[in-house]
UniProtKB/TrEMBL annotation:
Keywords: Hydrolase, Metal-binding, Metalloprotease, Protease, Zinc. NCBIfam families: PQQ_syn_pqqF. Residues 473-606 form the Coenzyme PQQ synthesis protein F C-terminal lobe domain. This is Coenzyme PQQ biosynthesis probable peptidase PqqF. Residues 25-138 form the Peptidase M16 N-terminal domain. The lineage of its organism: Bacteria, Pseudomonadati, Pseudomonadota, Gammaproteobacteria, Pseudomonadales. Residues 673-772 form the Coenzyme PQQ synthesis protein F-like C-terminal lobe domain. Residues 183-338 form the Peptidase M16 C-terminal domain. GO terms for biological process: proteolysis; pyrroloquinoline quinone biosynthetic process.
């Protein structure tokens, strides 16, 4: 074993309540927050075939009014009010509901969670409004590549199977006005949403007896019932190659149906990890070295009992059939190599160590997710791994590739699929490859003897106190460039670090590189002994990216975004706030030398959290450039109203960031509370009242060194100009609403916000980010002082903050896939 596995273990207990509810309790010693996860054993494949989307629709409806709590006091509003997170997901044979909250809020969260599951109102008027939300979601998903690729797989089904049917739901498939639909909806809820069909998992640092008491108190509200037995038909595919029309760069996916052996969860996770492995000699590295693709991303598409369907996504694949055949050939060559490696003792040992680290460093929500989705504490059994590998054969594979060319429209309900099916891809005749098993992760070994005491370099400051968990550390290393740095340098650095990011993550350290035109921040956080060993490797890699790294940076296609447009805009926001990144004007062969010059001339400073490390002191003491603790100031690129137009999809999306006016504690307190006050109202106004779409967000956000209010809307029917008009109208309407707040109402808003700020951050990473923000932004105040200011806020302070937002006093930044709607905006 290693020193990594010497932390307190997660303790589990299983029990069954008198009503038949299955309960799993997890004591997670390192968790700062608590989590609850309910899995109902019913999903889209259990719904009546005449009403596609009914199961997904019910999942949405449960978050509205229930017998005990109106929607504005329900689970979503409650969790958001205490700074937690909440979500749900409808799958083929199950539906999940989960949340993470501070410990004092767990009782209230469970009360609302079980009430909405057991006693939903299912109001017809609310159903009509929520159906429009599903319609908007349906239209947005119709542009999503993964959705279209999985849907096109139905062309290769050997016999009818629910997997090939449409289940998302839309306006046409959910006739809420019809009595027969209402009977089906209520009947589905009665049949499946009871204790015999559910499993609840609760995790936190509390003793298991305390968690058990909460489970009994709230779990008893689910009605008793017998487990419904369902037997899904066999999932069989005919070998085929499917081309599907979809936006964005080419993506190739290779699908395999599986019959799952015993202990399949851990074995499948192990296989996925080896497929993703980045070091030389593996599948991903070979594809990248040959210029065939950027990365290999396996995923589970479907599971029901012992049936499963997996996809091996080949991202950034070249757009020609000869390359696809080469990729397929290399995949099966690698699978044949891996299948003959005896009992995979080294691979299974590494997987055991990685899973041990995850359990010892996870949050409460991660703990329940691992318990329910990733095989829990199962060991990786050699027979299970062998059983999976024997099924990954050319005769079982269906390949699906995206294309932007016009293809025939398929006559079928649901998403508008344009696709063509042909015989399977042929295997190319290639030279043998010298495959290698993944090397042992060096960071999973026991730590080396510590270095002797080493002086702290001029550019580094350490902070250590009782709030930092024992054995944990974080480091933030910031480079400041004298002139804007071209995006190609950031691209090469990110590509170079990718294998190390994976290896560090397996050993309990999160490694990130955040790049903007004026500064870069390398951050590491997690187990202190691993941070010490990862930092030198990261700096060694950054000094000299490889030729493949520069090639990837110069080719924008593999980095092109897919998926929901709003998420793409959110990904662009941090860099946009720092100003546009300049474009390199150097020839490709001059880039490595130019980078070396930049790297050696940079100014830098660093902030360490935890017990001061002689290793980090020594490494940073030798870092090129000039280490400066004081006098390094950011170049803030600002415009009163700045608009960035991005390439987009058919739908329209607008993201607007209103910068916070002032860094003092009263200002941040007012802006944070304003964000909480506006959040629910904005959601109701845009999503429910105007029914613009399902992609709606409003809240206070810290993005790098900038803080402010973020508004985001994606709509299938409103233009960007119309969305912006609705946003202005919303803000205007809030002036009257805030002015009418009573003292009692204001107190109910202040109290949970202040309590949220007094709570410790949910994860060590969040704690480290908060401490870094205090260091990196002179004038920023600690959470405790902001909490005290929140308790003293009055209506006038909220109205002043709202006026700052409406008048763009500290600046607006907008990202959208359309031109600006009026002359107030400057471009870029």
């Amino acid at each position: 074993m290693t020193d990594i596995a010497e932390h307190a273990p997660v303790i589990q207990r299983r029990m069954t309540l008198d009503n038949g509810l299955a309960v799993t309790l997890l004591q997670v010693p390192q968790a700062q927050h608590c989590a609850a996860w309910v899995r109902v054993a019913a999903g889209s494949h259990d719904e009546p075939r005449e009403y596609p989307g009914l199961a997904h629709f019910l999942e949405h409806l449960l978050f509205l009014d229930s017998a005990g709590f109106p929607a504005d006091q329900g689970l979503m509003a409650f969790v958001q009010g205490v700074g937690g997170q909440v979500n749900a997901s409808t799958q083929a044979r199950h539906t999940d509901f989960f949340c993470e909250v501070p410990p004092l809020a767990l009782d209230g969260a469970l009360a609302r969670l079980f009430d909405m599951l057991a006693r939903p109102a299912l109001d017809p008027g609310a159903q009509r409004r929520e159906r429009e939300v599903l319609q908007a979601e349906f239209l947005a998903r119709g542009e999503d590549r993964e959705t279209l690729m999985d849907g096109a797989l139905g062309l290769a089904l050997a016999a009818h199977h629910p997997f090939g049917d449409f289940h998302a739901g839309n306006r046409e498939t959910l006739p809420v006005e019809e009595e027969t639909f209402q009977q089906a909806l209520h009947g589905f809820h009665r049949r499946f949403y009871h204790a015999g069909q559910a499993h609840v998992l609760i995790a936190g640092a509390q003793p298991l007896d305390a968690l058990a008491a909460l489970a009994k108190r709230h779990g008893r509200h689910l009605a008793p019932g017998a487990r419904v037995s369902t037997q899904p038909p066999a999932l069989r595919l005919e070998p085929a190659h499917v081309e599907v029309q979809a936006p964005g760069p080419t993506q190739l996916a290779l699908y395999f149906p599986l019959v799952l052996p015993t202990a399949a969860g851990a074995a499948l996770e192990c296989l996925f990890r080896v497929l993703r492995s980045a070091p030389s000699g593996g599948l991903q590295a070979t594809l990248r070295e040959r210029g065939y693709a950027e990365r290999v991303s396996p995923r589970r598409v479907y599971r029901a009992d012992d049936q499963a369907l997996i996809a091996i996504d080949i991202e950034g694949a070249s757009a020609d059939e000869a390359t696809w055949s080469e990729i397929v050939t290399l995949l099966f060559s690698w699978l044949e190599f891996f299948a003959t490696r005896s009992d995979w003792a080294d691979v299974r040992e590494q997987e055991f160590l990685i899973r041990s680290v995850r359990w010892q460093t996870c949050s409460a929500l991660d703990a329940v997710r691992m318990a329910v989705e990733k095989g829990g504490n199962e060991p990786v059994e050699a027979p299970a791994l062998a059983a999976l590998l024997t099924q990954l054969t050319p005769g079982a594979m269906v390949s699906v590739v995206t294309s932007t060319r016009e293809l025939p429209l398929l006559e079928r309900p649901g998403f508008a699929l344009r696709a063509r099916c042909s015989k399977g891809l042929s295997r190319a005749r290639g030279a043998p490859v010298a495959w290698c098993l993944p090397e042992r992760n060096p960071f999973l070994k026991s730590a080396a003897a510590p270095r002797a005491v080493c002086p702290v370099p001029a550019g580094l400051r350490w902070q250590n106190d009782a709030d930092i968990p024992p054995g944990h550390a974080a480091l933030f290393l910031r480079w400041r460039w004298s002139t804007p740095v071209a995006d190609v340098f950031a691209g090469a650095a990110q590509a170079a670090l990718a294998p190390l990011v994976q290896a560090a993550g397996e050993a309990g350290v999160e490694l990130r590189l955040q790049c903007s035109a004026r500064d870069w921040v390398l951050s590491l956080g997690g187990l202190a002994s691993v941070v010490d060993r990862v930092l030198p490797e990261a700096l060694k890699i950054l000094r000299q990216p490889t030729a493949e790294d520069w090639r990837d940076a110069l080719d924008p296609a593999p980095r092109a975004a897919g998926g929901m447009l709003l998420r793409q805009l959110l990904d662009e926001l941090p860099g946009a706030l720092q100003g546009s990144v300049s474009v390199a004007e150097l020839p490709a062969d001059a880039l490595p030398g130019a980078w070396r010059a930049l790297y050696h001339q940079a100014r830098w400073d660093a902030f360490g959290l935890g017990q001061p490390s002689p290793t980090i002191n020594a490494v940073l003491g030798e870092l090129p450039g000039q280490g400066l603790f004081e006098g390094v100031s950011a170049v803030n690129v600002r415009s009163t109203c700045r608009w960035i137009e991005v390439a987009g999809q058919k739908e329209q999306a607008l993201l607007l960031f209103a910068r916070q006016a002032g860094l003092d504690a009263p200002a941040e307190a007012a802006w944070r509370l304003l964000g909480n006050v506006l959040q629910g109202a904005f959601y109701t106004y845009m999503r429910t009242d105007l029914q613009l779409g399902y992609g709606v967000y409003c809240g206070y956000r810290q993005v790098g060194e900038e803080a402010g209010l973020l508004f985001a809307v994606q709509s299938p029917k409103a233009s960007v100009a119309e969305i912006f008009g609705h946003l202005l109208a919303f803000l205007e309407g809030q002036q009257e609403r805030l002015g009418q707040l009573t003292d009692e109402a204001l107190e109910t808003l202040r109290e949970p916000m202040a309590a949220q700020l007094w709570q410790p951050p949910a994860t060590f990473r969040a704690l480290a980010e908060a401490r870094w923000a205090l260091y990196a932004q002179p004038g920023k105040q600690p959470a405790e002082r902001i909490a005290r200011c929140v308790q003293e806020l009055n209506r006038a302070a909220l109205l002043d903050a709202l006026a700052c937002v409406r008048q763009a006093q500290a600046g607006w930044l907008a990202l959208a896939n359309a031109a600006p709607p009026d002359p107030r905006w400057s471009l870029g």
